[in-house]
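Priority: medium. Attachment 1 of 2:
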């Protein structure tokens, strides 16, 4: 079997989909089983130079015209079908919701990362919302397999497009261990000194709910004099109005540190040094920062009633993402209770062992082989 994987999302700064592409492709050759040939097509081939190529994985460079988002859309719908035929592909695996319009003359599988454009439409830029609204349902409906990363997402997709319920397969995402050896282990002293503060990871956009997290942190700073700083890691996104308003009302804005996008090795250091990860997003299809933090022994506070709770299991503290007081209470417990922090760090490490890119690749291949049997 030969699989074509259009890796057309921007590779830098690395988003969740870009992380998924690297994780899946990197694990493809590592499985202890025969694997299909994988043709990864990208406009940023250098971003995949460190992956083992030449076995099952081949990276094919593709120039974009015009450059940017319009070029990626044009390549997916106009050039990928012809490339699939030229390479002799048996199936196209679309990693970002949408397969080529009009089909490619062979089976397709589509990965649905989330349905934010349905459930939290107001948090998505208008152009993207319109594009997804016109293409995602058709891609899902015509796909021979639909891959999701959580049971919550499987249920959401089945409700969104009931006709594909029997074709949905769950392939949980993974976390890389490539940087674990480069960062010192967490210690009791790190946690006792709150050395790295409270960490937030994600693109700065409304769905990440950073305005409420800021408000919760501000409340704590009003009540106590020694609250750890809030360290924000992530690229600038869109619509920062609520965030800016919350920051303007924060009593100690110098305790809010924006670090921007960080490469994996520096992000690993942040996880290792943080008192806790605060990831109270309004909505996620999976939530990679949760398992990344757990893998590094960083305790987690995340959102109740979402896919994040499924991913975290019993290894995280949960809060209602729409309740500032609940987020505040969770933060305070993590600041004050060393025994809780130690217990969550240990439980998180154990939980994170379940989430590997090898398992994701194995389940993905199983789903594709069901189609191309």
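Attachment 2 of 2:
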């Amino acid at each position: 079997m030969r699989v074509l994987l259009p890796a057309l999302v921007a590779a830098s700064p690395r988003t969740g989909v870009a992380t998924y592409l690297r994780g899946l492709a990197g694990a493809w050759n590592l499985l202890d089983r025969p694997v299909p040939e994988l043709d990864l097509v990208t406009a940023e081939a250098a971003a995949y130079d460190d992956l083992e190529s030449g076995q099952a994985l081949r990276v094919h460079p593709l120039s974009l015209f015009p450059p940017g988002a319009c070029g990626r859309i044009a390549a997916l719908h106009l050039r990928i079908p012809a490339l699939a035929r030229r390479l002799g592909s048996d199936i196209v695996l679309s990693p970002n919701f949408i397969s080529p319009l009009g089909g490619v003359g062979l089976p397709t599988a589509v990965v649905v990362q989330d349905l934010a454009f349905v459930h939290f439409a107001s948090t998505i830029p208008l152009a993207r919302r319109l594009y997804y609204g016109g293409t995602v349902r058709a891609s899902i409906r015509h796909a021979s397999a639909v891959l999701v990363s959580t049971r919550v997402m499987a249920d959401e997709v089945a409700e969104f497009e009931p006709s594909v319920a029997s074709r949905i397969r769950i392939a949980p995402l993974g976390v890389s261990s490539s940087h674990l050896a480069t960062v010192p282990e967490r210690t009791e002293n790190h946690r006792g000194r709150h050395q790295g503060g409270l960490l937030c990871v994600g693109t700065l956009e409304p769905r990440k709910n950073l305005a409420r997290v800021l408000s919760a942190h501000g409340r704590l700073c009003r009540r106590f004099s020694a609250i750890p700083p809030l360290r924000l890691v992530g690229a600038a996104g869109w619509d920062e109005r609520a965030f800016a308003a919350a920051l303007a009302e924060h009593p100690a804005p110098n305790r809010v540190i924006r670090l921007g996008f960080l490469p994996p090795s520096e992000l690993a250091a942040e996880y290792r040094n943080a008192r806790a990860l605060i990831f109270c997003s309004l909505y996620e299809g999976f939530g990679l920062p949760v398992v990344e933090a757990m893998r590094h022994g960083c305790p987690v506070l995340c959102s109740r009633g979402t896919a994040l709770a499924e991913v975290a299991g019993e290894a995280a503290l949960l809060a209602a993402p729409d309740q500032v007081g609940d987020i505040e209470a969770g933060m305070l417990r993590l600041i004050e209770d060393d025994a809780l922090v130690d217990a969550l760090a240990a439980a998180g490490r154990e939980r994170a062992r379940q989430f590997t890119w090898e398992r994701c690749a194995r389940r993905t291949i199983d789903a594709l082989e069901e189609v191309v049997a």
